[in-house]
UniProtKB/TrEMBL annotation:
Domain RecA family profile, first and last residues per copy: 166-319
Molecular-function GO term, any one: ATP-dependent DNA damage sensor activity
Protein name: RecA family profile 1 domain-containing protein
Signal peptide: none
Keyword terms: ATP-binding, DNA damage, DNA repair, DNA-binding, Hydrolase, Metal-binding, Nucleotide-binding, Stress response
Keyword Calcium: no
One annotated GO biological process: recombinational repair
UniProt KW DNA-binding keyword: yes
Species whose genome carries this gene: Lithocarpus litseifolius
CDD domains cross-referenced by the UniProt entry: RadA_SMS_N (cd01121)
Pfam families with a match to the protein in the record: AAA_25, ChlI
Amino acid sequence: MQVSEMRALRLIFYTKTQRLQRLHPSIPNSLSSFPQFSRHFLHSTPSLHHSNSTAETAPRAWSIYDHAPGTDGNGNAKKPNLDIVGNKKKGKARFSWVCADCGHSDGQWWGACRECNAVGTLKRFSEGGSAEVSEGKTWLSPKAGESRPMRLTDVNRGINQLNWRIPLHGPFGNEVSRVLGGGIVPGSLVLVGGDPGVGKSTLLLQIAAMIAERNDLGQPAPVVYVSGEESVEQIGNRADRLSIGADELFLYSNTEIEDILGKSQPLSPRVIIVDSIQTVYLQGVAGSAGGPAQVKECTSALLRFAKRTNIPILLIGHVTKSGDLAGPHVLEHIVDVVLYMEGEKYSSYRLLRSLKNRFGSTDELGVFEMSPSGLQAVSNPSEMFLSDQYSDSEYLAGLAVAVIMDGSRTFLIEVQALCASGSTASRQVNGIQASRADMIISVLMKQTGLKLQEDAIFLNVVSGVKLSETAGDLAVAAAICSSFLEFPIPNNIAFIGEVGLGGELRTVPRMEKRLNTVAKLGYKMCIVPKSAEKSLGSHGFEGMEIIGCRNLKEVINTVFRAH
Ligand code: TYD
Ligand code: MG
């Protein structure tokens, strides 16, 4: 609850209590008489306030689904309402507008408070308890009083931590598993976000099929794929294209959460998939599907269902134009895992990252390729950004290979430079931060004496990748030198290092991991900062020569001389 809302409630409470006290002198007159500040005082009879035991255990949660129907959270029958605020009609969601300044409440919204005339201070309050949850749908409400604090040893007894997660098999499964931290955790709520058309539905349908075909015991297990966006025929069509024929995969097209969970639970699914959180709604909650209140309440209901039944739920979430997950930010706080799928518009590569993971590291990356038959794991991700031409680019000047890291993955990236003399001096960069490119060009001019000022310089990173790590500086500088000097760099040399303003080379983190990948790919030489060379000691990198250079001048003298 917002601080201002709390303040408003306190004010109403104070004003109303004063009024009530005049009528019933037995009512206490300050909040301090109540061990907890709960909105339930709005509906309580005066005698309820005297019961310390009830007040002490009153839940704080705001959600209208926090109580079992007809109870106060402790299994006690609800006391009759005492109408104090707003215009109430039985059986309907009730709202009132409360002035945050004076506490005056009104049945409808006004631009200014009719009591104190303050403008824009009216805040809407749901008075709760109005949305009826059908009997028997108890997953929507926590069973307070059932659970007790448990010893860690008791909790862990009988759980084999190694077999605890639902494993995903095969190259595709391993790639998803790596991002999740080793399989799907039972009872977890996983949110998968990404731009429209990036492949979220395809990814989750493939995961669903994988589990439906073979679960952890090697047996088929039921999986329910619910879509609020597509009809079952459309999902079936997609499954057909992906050659999915799992008998245990159930498709369901619906948008009402209670109905979805009610019809899924009897199937005892191993996993439930909901596509997407912006299309589902919960009856009794204000606002249309996709609105902040609906998204929050639906996610909370799904989380409670997952925790109570131990059935993991994978959720799809849309992103806004700015790249944030649509809906309230609280969504990311509620779920256990947030995965983000990204991909360039004209590239078939898709990266799956973990932004939040309560059960594993967020330092992992899954690499896929979107093919006509669905997403496939990429077997050699390190090389995927090198262009085909590169292997026979022995005679092409202006190409250099950078070694960058993303999460725990190492990628080799091809940087291209073109220095064109005779045209107007201008700079065009693509895939590199323009200010960083300017800095490297200026350092080259000042510290190595290259006369670049009269040339037009074009820089490009192949495959539409963004070079955001400073470890790529040296490759950018090397590509520019190569083009300017018209001296092709042999295609078995890679570059790692950050360039400082004095032209000096600086070391970057995880040198050893980068060098291991480069060596495995058969490179014969790697240029690194001198300081890094020392720290590597006498490591052998499969016969690859490691050359440490102090500054850009040394790099030019080493690489650009007749072999
Ligand atoms: P989709 O999973 O519908 O994306 P999202 O749910 O994130 O909006 O994927 C849509 C794109 O994926 C679509 O442009 C076509 C492409 N695609 C393939 O290339 N191959 C396939 O086998 C499938 C199913 C989709
Ligand atoms: Mg989709």
